[in-house]
Amino acid sequence: MERNVALIAVFAALIAALGLMPNLMLASGVPITAQSLGVMLCGTVLGAKRGALAVLLFVALVALGLPLLAGGRGGLGVFASPTAGFIIGFPIAAFAAGVVMEQTRQLPVGLAAGIAAALGGILVLYILGVSGFMLVLNKSLVEALVILIWYIPGDLIKAALAGFITAGLARARPASVLSRR
Amino acid sequence: MISLTSPVETAAHRWSAGPKLALLCGATVVLFAVGSTVWQLVFLMLTAFLYLLPGRVFALSGARRLWGLWPFVALILLWHAVTRDLSGGALIVFRMLTAVALANLVTMTTRLSDMMGVVRWLLMPLARLGFPARRVEMALALVIRFTPVLADKGKMLMLAWRARSPKRPGWRILIPFAVLAIDDAEHVAEALRARGGL
Prior knowledge:
A: 181 residues
């Protein structure tokens, strides 16, 4: 029990810390904000239930007024902004990634994690994020997609990274990759 | 960890958090129900007035927090200029700014401890049903402590990378970073168990 609580808390802090660190560069020089990568990792490493709890903890602390989102944003205003759907969708995205990870045990960890991160962290997250965007800015589905579709290539790269990192963790700390235990 | 509560003490700092949150919910529902641009402008003006009440420093820090929305404001106005519906665009922009500003206002005038009180109050009925409310509070406290610790460890990893490579730190740094985080969690779990557990 203590171990679960500590891992959940540490992964929530990991998402926050990824937002505090300067942007990492990909080989091509494209900067990535690693925060949504943190959400994917919660699902692929901790599994559906614990991953969702970790992200929920992070979102709760943002709502309570801590500046944990990238760029020092936080507080209740985030939940009224056009990107609210993405923040609210974070725990559900992690849950979906965890479910996919737990259902694909026959695949190698890295490949399964990449697929799980793409399905949870992109497909599910965008369904919720685009809905929020449509609601706050009063846009149609097509209009919202035209604006948001440009972020998807970057997110695909993050899903691939989530796969590599989860595979690395499964080698370095196999006992802690709870989604595969 | 410093929360986003304003250091400028306002009268609203002394109100309890629950009613403020309830008012915010009500105000947001009204904002999304009213479809008149003129009324939305009135709401925005009223909100600006609320920000000006505690003085210049408070209003400026509030305005700075809204500044992050400028890409959306530009996008919407441009979009509606192209579709020749500027009044519809203004409605969306006014409503978005008011909704975010009001929510920020609650965050700026409510201390973290008061917000935690609301969480505790919300969890109370669940705790009676066997929900582990104490564990949630413990986890919240752990995240607040872990975040700066992990951020520091990440910075150290980046320094170590720079000492060895002329290139900027890349994504590969994230694996040792996550390993460090997991090791921290295992140590803390052991320490919690040693002190009687949760």
